Amino acid sequence: MARKTTYRSRIQRTIDAPAAKAFDAWVDAKTNAKWYASKANHDVKVGGAYSNNFGDKGQFLEVAKGKKLRYTWENPGNAPGTVVTVNFRPFGRNKCKVQVTHSKLPKKTDVDKFQEYWNWATDSLKSFIDNGRRLSMDAWKKVQAAEAAKAKAAPAKKAAPARKTAAKAAPAKKAAPARKTAAKAPAKAAPARKTAAAKAPAKKAAPARKTAAAKAPAKKAAPARKPAAAKTTTAAKKAAPARKTAAAKAPVKKAAPARKPAAAKKAAPARKK
What one-character DSSP code corresponds to residue 264? Predict the structure, then answer.
């Protein structure tokens, strides 16, 4: 079975009173009769019944003191079988927001009807809390009509020009040429900064410092010392006569005749006795 479509009406009003005071004005039968219905009976508890001389009646489904009410709406001539939820929320200092939601409405046209109804009821509650007087439905409708006529009769005002920011309000100036980066400049590119070495005029490179040996004028290389044996080559020069030893330097003498032994001399004549 297809689910039946229902509708919902919701309004909200700011009341200059704490949430607890607005809640009590709604549920207390004697106080309720001063701003809503002239006669009311309320048994404020879950399952308790309520009724008034407007034909409204039903049963409380939820009661959260100072915060929330939820009850059925069984007015025979005005959307029976629906549900009303009233929330009381603190708002600022000594103020509250009263939100009324009428749900499960059978017809879309019921939405506008109950928007008007609950706007009147909360305005009457506000009037009662502000100055102790109820606001009847007829009086409320007259006030609404007068405000609508006043709004319609007021000459249409040209919308004030939007405030211009400082940048928009200033007279238009030619845009300053954008700073060009070194890459964007059309002129010849400025020579790159030269380092100290690059700025100095080019000089002939100073000859590398020569070592003491390199500075001295080139001399003919002294012939390498040859070992004594290598100084005179046998092929180029005649061989120098070898040094003679003392024995060799002395002139050769004829060898002295070898001494003859005593036996070799002539024997002396024997002495005669």
Answer: G
